[in-house]
UniProtKB/TrEMBL annotation:
Protein name: Spherulation-specific family 4 protein
Cited Pfam families: Spherulin4
Amino acid sequence: MTTGQISGRRRLLVPLYVYPGTEPGAWHGVAARADTVAWVVFNPASGPGRVPEPEFAEAAGTLRAAGIPLLGYVDTDYGRRSHREVVTDLERYQDWYPVDGVFLDQVGSAPELLPHYRRLAVAARSLDARQVVLNPGVHPDPGYAAIADVVITFEGAWEVYQRLQVPAWTTAYPARRFGHLVHTVPADDCDLVLRTARQYGAEYCYATPGTGDNPWSVLMPQLRQGSEVC
């Protein structure tokens, strides 16, 4: 399959970590391919920020009008941020940019943190989050799958992803309960990531050629304006 094509429908979980004021084309490119996008991770300032930003409110409206659900990004610092700090971020999202769900990032993976994340999931749902996505970026203790709607069990480079070992416990859950985020992918191989994710038992995925501290600032080639989507 050639670059510019996406196999399957609404499987992409897109971390759209670009500023809409300077890169509106990225947001419009994603909106134009709504039939392939399951969710966009909405991240104004490594969270909602301290004040609402009109550019992000407008961008959120563009995606919402296209039928793309938004997940508000919240950093949990591997369990070090307090329950109150995280909930404050969740409340700000719903006050400023009403979102459809939450994307809790830098999630712990050990069993002793399960009560903390269970409370956060309950709080998120009480704030009208219809989807709770946890991102430990690795396969965590199996208890995390019982807390979340989706667990991101891989976040990392394509070279590492190709050697991923998937634990047997994941087979107790359907593929729609797992997602993978892969960076440093050669542009011609981005669609291959989607097929590989299915082989690993994950329905949702995303691939980018981006590298460095914020690889997600580089949009997947298949979502750029002017590319062809199957």
